[in-house]
Fold each of these.
Amino acid sequence: MDVIVIGGGHNGLVAAATLARKGHGVTLLEGRESFGGVAAGLLHDTDSFSPEIAKALDLAGHGLEFADPAPVFVLSREGPGLLLHRDPVQAAGELGADAEAYISWRAFLKRVLPFATSQLDSVAPDISTSGPLLPLMRRGFAFRRMGKTDIHECLRIGPACVDDTLSEHFQSPLLRAALSARALQGTWMGPRSPSSTATLLLGEAQSGQEIVGGASSLVTALVAACESSGVELRPSSRVSRIQVSQGRATGVTTEGGESLLADRVLSCIGPRRTLLELIEPEHLPIREAGQMANLRLRGTLARVSLRLAEPIDYACRPGLRPKRSLVAEHPLDLERAFDHVKHRRMPTQLPLDIHQTDGEASILIRCATIELQGGWSDKRRQELGDLTLAALEPHVPNIRGIARVTRILTPTDIAQEFDLEGGHEMHGELSLDQLGPMRPSMTLARHATPIDALYLGSAGIHPGGAISGRPGWQAAQVVGSP
Amino acid sequence: MPRKTALFERTADLMTSVAWKEWAGYAAPCNFDAYSEREYFAIRHSAGLLDLSPLAKYMVTGADAARYLARIWTRDITRLKPGRVAYGCMCDGEGKLLDDGTVACLDPETFRVTSSEAWLGWFERHSRGYQVEIEDCTDRLAALALQGPLSREILQAVTEVDLDAMRFFGVAAGSIAGVNGWISRTGYTGDLGYEIWIACEDALTVYDALLVAGKPHHLEPIGLDALDVARIEAGFVMQGVDYISAQHCLIEARKSTPEDAGLGWTVNLERAGWIGREALVQEQEQGPKWGLVGLELDWAEIEALHEEYGLPPHLSPLACRNAVPVYSEGGANEKPVGQATSSSWSPTLKRYLVLAQVHRKYAALGTRLSVEYTVEFERRTITGTVVERPFFDPERKTFTPKAAPKGAS
Amino acid sequence: MSAKGAESNPYDAIVVGGGHNGLTAAAYLARSGRKVLVLERRHLVGGAAVTEELYPGFKYSVCSYVVSLLRPWIIRDLNLSRHGLRIVPLECSYTPQLDSPGLCRWPDPDQNRQEIRRLSRRDADNYPEFGKLMGKLARFAKPFIDELAPDPTSLRPGDLWQFKRAADRFRALGDDLVALQLKLTTMGGVDFLREFFESDQLIAPMSCSGIIGTMLGVNSPGTAYVLLHHYMGEIDGSSRAWGFPIGGTGAVSDAIAASALEFGAEIRCNAPIANIRLKNGRATGVILQNGDEIAARSVVSGCDPSLTFLRFVGKENLPADFAASLENYKNRGSSGKVNLALDRFPEFVQRPGIGPHVRGDVAIAPSTEYLETAYDEAKYGAFSQRPFINVVFPSLLDPGMAPPGKHVMSCFVQYAPYDLASGAKSWPDHREAFGDAVVDTLAEYMPTLKEDILHRQVLSPWDIEQEIGITEGNIFHGELGLEQLLFQRPVAGWARYRTPIDGLWLGSSGAHPGGGIMASPGALAAKEMLRAGAV
Ligand SMILES: Cc1cc2nc3c(=O)[nH]c(=O)nc-3n(C[C@H](O)[C@H](O)[C@H](O)COP(=O)(O)OP(=O)(O)OC[C@H]3O[C@@H](n4cnc5c(N)ncnc54)[C@H](O)[C@@H]3O)c2cc1C
Ligand SMILES: Cc1cc2nc3c(=O)[nH]c(=O)nc-3n(C[C@H](O)[C@H](O)[C@H](O)COP(=O)(O)OP(=O)(O)OC[C@H]3O[C@@H](n4cnc5c(N)ncnc54)[C@H](O)[C@@H]3O)c2cc1C
């Protein structure tokens, strides 16, 4: 069977390699000159990639290595900051009064997350009213196995806001801010938004070991896996149309005007763009058209890159020089930042997510809305750079002396550069109504579409964002089945 | 609270009755006199003039206008030529009827759509991906219906558009009583007739000019009651009466497909890409459940039934819109097999006519059914026979004096 | 009555708190022939549903001011109309704007259409469709407020059966409505409404229903589902959303009290209790603040969960996990109330006159941005300078509420956070400034308002706590967030009116189905007690 995979982000690469290893003829079409999509060189967290997928694709054979995640250093103007290890025992020394609570929190997560992870590792359940009941009941029973107390706790905290949940356990605002920041990635929420605890749990369910060398090592390994299994890799081939004939996808047309035929087409770009832009509207049932028109993907991400004359040394803990650090001293700092997103305003005080490597720092800002009133201009872009330095200055008094801003990507720039609709890194906000069997919608979450032979497999599909490889992998299983 | 149309001032003046009813949020005359008979006979023997302005009207323009309309309409609008009008209907994703109306092709990228009620929300929701602009022009555009055997002569007196050459379902721009507008040879009476589309501020001018021109021809302003009788004779269904828009149905059973409502002819299942098709293909495979039939009630039975009570048969000058059950012949004690939705005594045909939705197997011509009929608070039945629709179909409806050879519009 | 006397002839049940739920529970118990005593702290019954004449001739519905979900079956069971209950429907929902006529939403669809068309024709078309969809979902949701909340972890046959029935009904909705229901329960009000409408002037007032009584904004996830309330509301069984009780909301409580008395219940005012009396972990009666003890076979609390358990019972007497859950129970009052006595009717500049547009509720909710900003201020511990206000003029609906020609004006205000940045106890220092912010805001729309005010009552959540006794002044006895609803109200596994203390029951707004003048918690609690043979 010949399969075309659209989009060479990490999910497209995973899907292509998986299908090729099953013996299918796979062509991977990527619009940009290089592969990897958002995963190529932009990202900080790489601890979500599924070790099972790495194993199945023999990524280790292509040079991929995992290691325990590096701790994140949370900066403070009042104390020594907090060096946060995921491992509770390692973290204990830093956590003081919260140490015990952190241990029991981790223990709670360890009890409840295996169920969530098992859900992420399988295709979304069919919850349509004509769907079979038995598989749903089976999942229900698996959930029940968690035990009454933990179930009650999950159902209680899931819809709650992450700030409340964390405040019930921890005193340290630094700890709460750090955990909240992670929970808010890919969402359109602040720590006081209800249901942000659910995204916290989702993130935790996905996280494990991180990739040595960062996301670019993953991309290198995936490209090598594709090549060795015979995928035809075609960069600079942006797809402009998916051809549909009599309700069936038959191939694609690229911007260069080339037509390619295939037995099946798997789209590993955003579901909304796939269905609303790449297909003539006549071919899409109105239900799915409506669902996609309502899909929310308001990007809030910007990045500032710094060249460093010397390593950043934080005043609160000189000499530490952590790889990962976070400027957010209180969950409410994150909430205030989100207020600006909500009101479509330029942020004033920036929480920062800093990744420092030799001579460089990449700083992610998660409160810059693509919907900015008046739009993003050059002036606004510069302002973002200034704000970043201003936010660093209290922690690194000499920052203006040692750092030079080399590149600023506003959400609009990210949308353009990475060909991302809405500048949304996950092709759809993470929110309860856009997760699990509802991601991206009730009838599209299981990779198949109402158009025969057309499938979906990007971060916009269950199980969703982050560099996990799971959407691509699961889509490949569905595409590859007869 | 109903609003006033651009012609309110005049129609209110002409009315000797105070019989208003609400039509799509506007006040519309039921009849101008105590009875609607004179108006009805004007439609059939001279001409009647009706204020159609409450009709929902949209302008759809743009490079993809035809393709877009072909998506939301059951008819293939991409094949509609400029100067032509197509009657059709609109379905939801499950193939259930939303509304019916006309699409007029004014030029290859400009269409005027009419429907019984407002659909801008629906239209815009499904316009994504098409280069179109949709304007709701209901409030800016007035519409008049001039219907009846003499309508051509009357209208010709005030316009230079060559009406002798305009074919049935044609549309043309031109000046009418000195103002610019459009004339289409369309109507809801099953007779020769025209509809005139002009800006609201010109409506009075045109209306008055037509009244003057029509005076020697016994033109009558008409209201909705007369129209209702005429449309039943013509066998036309009415949204909200003979079928209920799926948008308003709280339960599935109330919804109708085009086949159910007698509009199956507007549907081409071969053509792909229009909303509702997939579901209707399925319906086709399983065989449609319902059908719309025209019934003629047995007049002798009606007379005999009234005679039982010592009453003369009551010949109401009004169409009746109260739905009543229809049974298989003599099956009044069993479950109904359908419902009669509109009925009227036809003053022209001298017959009692009924439009009914019945189970498919009772829809064949000649089938005899029992229709509920109440006399003196007692529910009885009258035998009705399925007959051809339209009940009344004069040649003048479609005859064009200067018919151009086919294909030249 | 002496403590001894009570012991010798114990009550079947003591109801703590004479709010409308407590009274309802008492009426149902008495109706079944039980010997019931209601103990109310204040000098009058009603709790948050009271009418008081605080200024001669002017009657205030001090706290709650309109009714929606008062269960018709309770009205029938307790013969409330015979006891004087009369509810008139509100005629309109008016949202004024400063620079345009604003929006009136009427019961009549065509009238609505004309109004909404001025803002957006598309929205006018979509509005009835939206209503139809919500109506269908409301039909699905409604049975939940009239029965016990099933626990999804429970394997009790009753729960499983209820669950199966709910699941069957859910699936019967069909895919599109199931998806919509899932979205409705999880999304933010504004996001949800934007799927249907484009006009912010329409979305803003519609989204308000989701924030009432919560410390959430119109964009906060989980606020959409309250939209259903509007389509579930029924006055005398017909589904009109909101109504005003003749005589103010106190008249509802008075009617229930009259019914309870007729059934033989005893009601004692000025009788605050200090503790629920426990013996071997079992509730055996109450101890009044004056030291009197009164014995009863069962005690049912008509007070909020925090007050009931943490104050009346005491943390030390509760199972640890139950106590911990209660400490995490979110009260967080966020609403205040300003009641005004007016010399004359203060007309709205943009829609002058005393027409039908003011014989309903008036929402100061000009835009979603406005509402969200009001929320932001509260989040950080300040009352909103420009708050969301829901105004009703009771004197236009019931002339008896004010002297002829004069008026009363009821203003429900958000946000007024219980926890001010300077602490809840500092509310007395901020109360008048808060009142001024409300009046200033209103005066922008009604320029003569300030001159017309004869008397003003300002209630902050702190005042509500002091006056009505509700913890943190939360109008619903605890936020109506997803995590505090159904089987989780107030604590997972304890939503069936029973408590971990034998003989103690909870029948207030803090129990399923929650707050508002519904009377269900009280009625369902009483029924459950009777069913369990506890009284
Ligand atoms: C700045 C940023 C920071 C992030 N930080 C983290 C992080 O720290 N940790 C984490 O786990 N996740 C992070 N994410 C999110 C995560 O990277 C994404 O969710 C995930 O990589 C998405 O992968 P994907 O393969 O589904 O889609 P993409 O990576 O978006 O891949 C889609 C590919 O398709 C291509 N394409 C688009 N349109 C066409 C077309 N018409 N024809 C052909 N090709 C096309 C694009 O060029 C792209 O290469 C971040 C995202 C961004 C943008
Ligand atoms: C400002 C405000 C506006 C509202 N607006 C509306 C509205 O418009 N519509 C609507 O439907 N709902 C509204 N509500 C909510 C609604 O009024 C309440 O949810 C409902 O009235 C609560 O009734 P209840 O019987 O459960 O409790 P409550 O009314 O709180 O009754 C509890 C009773 O217990 C008594 N009590 C307290 N402590 C003791 C003690 N120690 N001993 C004895 N008795 C004690 C109190 O005095 C009180 O009478 C509003 C509430 C408030 C506060």
Amino acid sequence: MIKKMFIIFGRDFLSSRRDALAIYIIVVPLILAVVIALFAPGLNDTTVNIAMLESDNALHIEYIEQYAKVEVFKNIEEVERRVNKRDEMAGIIPLGDGYEIILQGNEAELIEMYAVMLNSFYDLRLTKEETTATMISFGRTVPPLKAKLTNMLISMTIMLSGMLIAISIVEEKNDDTINAVNVTPISQMGFIIGKSLLGSSVAMISIIGAIFITGFYNVNWVMIVVIGFCSMILSLVIGFLQGINSEDFMEAAAGVKMLMLPIAGSIAGYELLSDKWQWTMYWSPFYWAYKANDLILAQTADWPTILLCTGLVVLSSAIVFILFLPRIRKGLS
Amino acid sequence: MISVKNLSHIYSNNDKLAINDISFEITKGETFGFLGPSGAGKSTTQGILTGLLKLQKGDVQVAGYDMNKVDNKRFNKIGVSFEQSNVYSKLTAKENLEFYSKLFDVPTRDPEELIKLVGLEGKENDRAGSFSKGMKHRLTFARSMINNPELWFLDEPTTGLDPTIAATIKNIINEQKAKGVTTFLTTHNMYIADELCDRVAFIIDGHIKLIDTPKNLKMQYGKKLVDIEYVDGNEVKKETLKLIDDKDKKRMYEIINNYTIQTMHSKEATLEEIFIQVTGRGLI
Ligand SMILES: Nc1ncnc2c1ncn2[C@@H]1O[C@H](COP(=O)(O)OP(=O)(O)OP(=O)(O)O)[C@@H](O)[C@H]1O
Ligand SMILES: [Mg+2]
């Protein structure tokens, strides 16, 4: 049966290679990923630069070097000159008992916070093992805008994969070929799963491709795959329903595009609503998917949170799927 | 091979019974013709026998499987050619057959050979979307043979084909018959039915009016028919009358006494004429 599912998949792939709309859907996320990568240059450069004095405690320099790129200078003037250059750089120089942080003034808050934190950790002599967790969550080493854009792209990719399924269902409907498949030994469930494979694999490849192109190599890929796979289920169900209820490709594509609304709403809700009102978005699986991806891209995700989000996405998808399975079955017979 | 008892079917959006309490048996190796006018319920019956329509009422056994239970394995033994051709437009003729053949668990026939068989040689690598209606229909027909079916459902296999190609299709059906394939043949074409079928059923408005061999039907209804052409005013009229029917006999005297006869000959009834006699309706 598995083999037959892949035969269905192979045929869908062959057909979509000959369909302009399908090709478009497959390549658009990757193109957008390239656009994000090009328009947000240098954002991957997550290393924080620190200028220090040669005369400083060697242990201190060594400690800071574990977490930042350190450049050493002969005197305070040189450190100040370096910090005042255009790029993001903070200086740490000894002052009396403690240290002074030198900033240009237009440095990101992030850098300032990082430098301060780093130095306090040194004061406390925290080891790497003890501090990593705190450091990352404080250090937000990932540029937020780029992560947000990539995350939106992921949401869009998931929607597009639904569209791909809808298109291939409409093809079967237009050619009236479902009847022909229904008089072969493949079971209806096998057919449905086989039909999902193209959308799923394209979504998975696009998501991974997009994250790679935009340069988030260090994310937890397992988490990405888990949440990506689960948020796709909903899109698959909607793709099937839309395919069954549409007469032509354009109608199907337009129908799936309606998903934009809850997706955009969920993203806006997550980004703009205050914590007090976040609960108003809890109904939306897209909210949970977006939240999970947000945490993963920021590299602040932990498994319990991701599993919670995933569970909620799967739950809502399953509810929709079970509710509409009879419709899908009927539409495919 | 097929056993149907008291089968009825109604479409949800239609309050008339599409099939009304029909029963018949088809034995192994038999070619069974299902004849009737448009809307009689032929395709509906085929739909139920192939499992595409859900069995609502009645007992149906097909190729040893009870149609109340779903078992997709049975399709390894069954071939189905559809009334409306249904092939993937974006795939070539060959790709269509190759894809389809992979869905079966039994040895399948060579796609190119089948394409050749139905006269589509040279079109293997053309997309089915570019095919004419008749070509698509032939591809659908060819596909139905891909798994070497023991039981073969053909819904209007020759409709819309030119006479030469229809003859080719007829020959293919004959060859399959020689191999012992059981065929359920739905058609409007009485000549094809006459030549190919071991038995035919006349179906009208969801009822089976009779089931018999073409030979018996002709013995019973044939021979005693007379075609008369006569002149009435400026018009030449034609009537076909039964010599055993009193009303028809009176009518014949009437014509002979009142009009000028142009031609008059007795003949064997065609299946079509028998159909009209039995059901009182034409086949269209
Ligand atoms: N999908 C459907 N929904 C509702 N009624 C239908 C449907 N299909 C067929 N019918 C009705 O069922 C009856 C039988 O139709 P069917 O298609 O079986 O006829 P047929 O003998 O195959 O005719 P034809 O020679 O035109 O193919 C008709 O009265 C038709 O109107
Ligand atoms: Mg029909």
